Fold this sequence. Notes:
The protein is mainly alpha-helical. Helix content is 76%, strand content 0%. The chain is built from nine helices and no strands. It has helices at 2-5, 15-37, 44-73, 86-120, 134-144, 148-160, 162-178, 181-192, 203-244. Helix 4 packs across helix 7 (162-178), helix 4 (86-120) packs parallel to helix 9 and helix 7 (162-178) crosses helix 9.
Amino acid sequence: MLRILLGEPPRENGGVLAEAMDNMAKLAAMLRKEMNAHEDHDHEYRKLEIWTRGLISSLDELEQSWFAAAFYRKLVVAGYMDDMTVIEQGDYARYVYFYKNGFIRVFSLLDKLGTVLNSLYNLNTTKVKAHFSYFTVLRQFQLLKAHAPLAEELENIKNSYREPLQNLRKRRNAEVHYMNAEMQDDLWQRHQGLHDKIQLEDLDSHLEDLKQCLEMVCKSLSASFRYSNEQWRKNAAALKAGDGSK
């Protein structure tokens, strides 16, 4: 959607983004098939299908936010706020909007994934923390020693992106709980020299953090749904074998 508004061609999924999308779509299709074949009295399959399709939409929106932020970043040339033209100030504001939208979506999407994993694997994470995060779910996997292959893969993915995740978490917390991230930078610079020009934050470094976390999210989704698809097929095969032996 955003690419069309920006005059760019539609995205062609590739790499880890395509893998994540494909694995989620496969589970959603299996859930739909199960609902068509059997009655879903407790609506558990329907709930999981809705959540999974919601994750597909959320990942699409996160990638679009990163793309739009990168698009507007290219239009920001000045290194200081005071040196910007009116047009460039507008482009910078649009960069900030989509960048902030992106890093907030990273943690929102991960928490949604945590909710799906908690339900799929009966982790009962609410007994540990009523309003749990994705990272609480990872700890719950470890605590219960459940689904070790998936738990280990997700933990390794998280650890591989520790630094960019930490950077975005700090900026998310500043945005949500304190004040917006760019205002913090401005206040710090004003404190250093009341009459100095305000230098822009490192836009390229911030965008790279967002890109890395987008990649982390894609890998986490891909691993989770690939494993879930495998488990679903194994359970279906076991049930079929059991029926055949009667």
